[in-house]
Task: inverse folding
């Protein structure tokens, strides 16, 4: 699969994540059945500015490194369940319907 095709798959999925919900890098890779968390992270770093990038977090709920303040502001405005300055993954994790 071409890199552009993979990037498009990742970005399309990220656009589907509802406000107040999140997916981890690994969950995105698992859903797509391609790549891994690092590959998803690379796509988001290079092409993710036009999608709700803040809805993609680490598996432990950690926000996007280097953009924590803006991500936290966006999560609070969407009502995303938080635990301190991390996303509460038990409440906020989202998986696309089949």
Result:
């Amino acid at each position: 699969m071409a890199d552009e095709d993979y990037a498009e798959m990742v970005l399309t999925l990220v656009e589907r994540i509802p406000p107040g919900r999140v997916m981890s890098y690994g969950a995105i890779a698992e859903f797509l059945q391609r790549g891994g968390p690092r590959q998803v992270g690379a796509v988001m770093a290079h092409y993710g500015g036009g999608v709700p990038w803040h809805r993609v977090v680490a598996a432990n709920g950690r926000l996007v490194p280097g953009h924590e303040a803006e991500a936290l502001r966006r999560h609070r405005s969407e009502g995303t369940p938080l635990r301190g300055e991390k996303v509460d993954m038990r409440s906020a994790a989202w998986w696309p319907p089949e």
In short: The longest strand covers residues 23-24. Residues 3-92 form a domain with the Arc Repressor Mutant, subunit A fold (CATH 1.10.10.10). The radius of gyration is 12 Å.
